[in-house]
């Protein structure tokens, strides 16, 4: 017979559970994940290369994973900083998922790593939906991308704990309007911090590392409006776990 | 486009639920709630769903999506508004800064309609045969 069954399950419940398990597992060994999201070509790798170098100078043990559809170019660039780096090739997949990250960490993540930077696939749409077990989610945009970028990609910017503007050394040449950009960020994510950087000129360097270390030390991170569960539920994963799923047949 | 990954997550969860139920022979439809701010395009999801269902218990199943509008409420002044797209998440009246998102982030399987091997339970006494 035909039956209607209530399931009440979050579609991404599996990823959310994997992310929670990864976050807890890494926390137990003293590692905090920082998830970096941006469009392709925003300057994630250039900024991260400088921040990793700074971490090394300050003797902060860090490691980095970088994801791309193809090539190991970014891993080669990041490895110049001297910290442990690993390339993830997604073979065409547009985003990372928590389970994929966990598999890549197995047997590789150095025991001492205090921070693990994950450079997500360059894409502001898909990676926004996937929790990777991070404590700090950073969304980057370069000054060339337009002040309305946060409005065009509201889910990515709306879920950020920190927003980083890159390539400010050419802000004047491209007539970047900082006030307008900030107002657009504020519209989708009230209260989030916006940091201006230039990897080339060394402007704002160290801020990302400082914020990541503060988060690792348990300092409260920004709580985006969009990340708060509807109805004041407070967290985003469901309670349905295996046999606990509600199945109420209607005849 | 991550709608294919989303479609496969939906199928995986329905298959697991069907396996727990034990005697499901076919899935007719799956109903989803998709919030305006979930970052998922329902049309792209339907397209991927149809492709990904091939060869599974869900082959031929219809995907029904209910779009949930984004609504927010200002904690200081209690004003409620439709957030729109792109969303406005700071209070348009008092600029209070403390906003509760009431709805719009849903990405949830609400329910499924499936065929199982059970026979309908009679709800009334059968009418006695006429002699």
From TrEMBL, chain B:
Which positions does UniProt annotate for Zn(2+) binding?
74, 77, 91, 94
Instruction: List residues binding Ni(2+).
Output: 2
The answer to whether keyword Magnesium applies is no
Q: Which residues form a coiled coil?
A: none
The record lists the membrane-crossing segments as none
Q: Which Gene3D superfamilies match?
A: 3.30.2320.80
Q: Does the keyword Metal-binding apply?
A: yes
Q: Which UniProt keywords apply?
A: Metal-binding, Nickel, Zinc
- Entry-linked InterPro entries: HypA/HybF (IPR000688)
Q: Source organism's superkingdom?
A: Bacteria
User: Which PANTHER family is this protein grouped with?
Assistant: HYDROGENASE MATURATION FACTOR HYPA
The UniProt family comment states: Belongs to the HypA/HybF family.
What this protein is reported to do is described as:
Involved in the maturation of [NiFe] hydrogenases. Required for nickel insertion into the metal center of the hydrogenase.
Q: What is this protein called?
A: Hydrogenase maturation factor HypA
Query: What organism does the UniProt record list as the source?
Result: Streptomyces lannensis
Q: What lineage does UniProt assign to this protein's organism?
A: Bacteria, Bacillati, Actinomycetota, Actinomycetes, Kitasatosporales
Q: Which gene encodes it?
A: hypA
């Amino acid at each position: 017979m035909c039956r209607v069954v209530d399931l009440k399950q979050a579609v991404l419940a599996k990823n959310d559970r994997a992310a929670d398990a990864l976050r807890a597992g890494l926390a137990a060994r003293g590692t905090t994940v920082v998830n970096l999201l941006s469009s392709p070509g925003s300057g994630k790798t250039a900024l991260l290369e400088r921040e990793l170098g700074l971490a090394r100078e300050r003797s902060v043990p860090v490691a980095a994973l970088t994801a791309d559809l193809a090539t190991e170019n970014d891993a080669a660039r990041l490895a110049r900083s001297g910290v442990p780096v690993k390339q993830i090739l997604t073979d065409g997949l547009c985003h990372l998922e928590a389970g994929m990250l966990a598999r890549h960490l197995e047997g590789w993540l150095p025991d001492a790593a205090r921070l693990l930077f994950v450079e997500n696939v360059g894409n502001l749409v898909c990676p926004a939906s996937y929790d990777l077990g991070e404590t700090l989610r950073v969304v980057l945009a370069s000054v060339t991308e337009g002040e309305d970028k946060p409005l065009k990609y509201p889910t990515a910017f709306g879920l950020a704990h920190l927003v980083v503007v890159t390539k400010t050394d050419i802000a004047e040449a491209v007539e970047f309007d900082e006030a307008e950009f900030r107002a657009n960020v504020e519209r989708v994510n009230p209260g989030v911090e916006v940091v201006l950087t230039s990897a080339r000129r060394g402007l704002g360097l160290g801020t990302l590392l400082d914020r990541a270390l503060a988060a690792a030390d348990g300092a409260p991170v920004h709580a985006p409006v969009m990340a708060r569960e509807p109805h004041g539920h407070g967290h985003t994963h469901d309670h349905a776990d295996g046999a606990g799923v509600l199945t109420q047949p209607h005849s | 486009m991550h709608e294919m990954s989303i479609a496969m997550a939906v199928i995986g969860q329905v298959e697991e639920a069907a396996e727990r139920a034990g005697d499901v022979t076919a899935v007719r439809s799956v109903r989803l709630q998709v919030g305006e701010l979930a970052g998922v395009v329902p049309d792209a999801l339907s397209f991927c769903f149809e492709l990904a269902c091939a060869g599974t218990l869900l082959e031929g199943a219809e995907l029904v999506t209910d779009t949930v509008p984004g609504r927010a409420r200002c904690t200081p002044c209690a004003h409620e508004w439709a957030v729109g797209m792109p969303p406005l998440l700071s209070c348009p009246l008092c600029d209070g800064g403390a906003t509760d998102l009431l709805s719009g982030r849903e990405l949830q399987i609400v329910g499924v309609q499936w065929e199982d091997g059970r026979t309908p339970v009679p709800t009334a006494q059968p009418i006695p045969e006429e002699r």
